[in-house]
Amino acid sequence: NAGVMQNPRHLVRRRGQEARLRCSPMKGHSHVYWYRQLPEEGLKFMVYLQKENIIDESGMPKERFSAEFPKEGPSILRIQQVVRGDSAAYFCASLGIGGHDGYTFGSGTRLTVV
Amino acid sequence: KQEVTQIPAALSVPEGENLVLNCSFTDSAIYNLQWFRQDPGKGLTSLLLIQSSQREQTSGRLNASLDKSSGRSTLYIAASQPGDSATYLCAVRVISNFGNEKLTFGTGTRLTIIP
What we know:
The complex is a heterodimer.
Chain A: E1 5-7, E2 10-13, E3 19-24, E4 31-37, E5 43-50, E6 53-56, E7 65-68, E8 75-79, E9 88-95, E10 104-105, E11 109-113
Parallel strand pairs in A: 2-11
Antiparallel strand pairs in A: 1-3, 3-8, 4-5, 4-9, 5-6, 7-8, 9-10, 9-11
Chain B: E1 4-7, E2 10-14, E3 19-25, E4 32-38, E5 44-51, E6 56-59, E7 62-67, E8 72-77, E9 86-95, E10 101-105, E11 109-114
Parallel strand pairs in B: 2-11
Antiparallel strand pairs in B: 1-3, 3-8, 4-5, 4-9, 6-7, 7-8, 9-10, 9-11
């Protein structure tokens, strides 16, 4: 089991470009969560998805950010027209049905906006 | 709104000492609590998971306790080693009546073990 896979590990974008971050959950896990860690800050919840459904997006900025978890393929966190303040580490976590084993996190994508 | 606090924010101790990291949370209606380790520039590694019905969990030199009613958890590290140097994060899992759930993290304790 390869665990939670995130790619790319590092992403550099110029202001105004789009950033796409991908997350493949652990095999058998159907729940995906995205968290953001700003420099010198804690991890903040962004969005919770199940296959083809957004369950809770209360932590997502109202503009420029979107997330999906299609029936086939990885979950995608998309940031349009990036700004310097979007520079952060973005972590994906997955949870199995029942959730008794706890969350498993990926290694993260470190986004740098220049 | 659930808030998680970790004290101290940073801790330096000589190698070989035992130490305790503290975590407190404001809403005791948690499903479970998880302790993670994060090395600089890296992801999160799960250390211990305590279900709400449990009082403690142990793994090797690590022991985590949970007192749900008082909103507290501690992570005890025995015989500390330089390789234990990292940031330790406490996170509580809450499941709402609507089925929404999330982890709420503390801001972490940055631990340095001095050789």
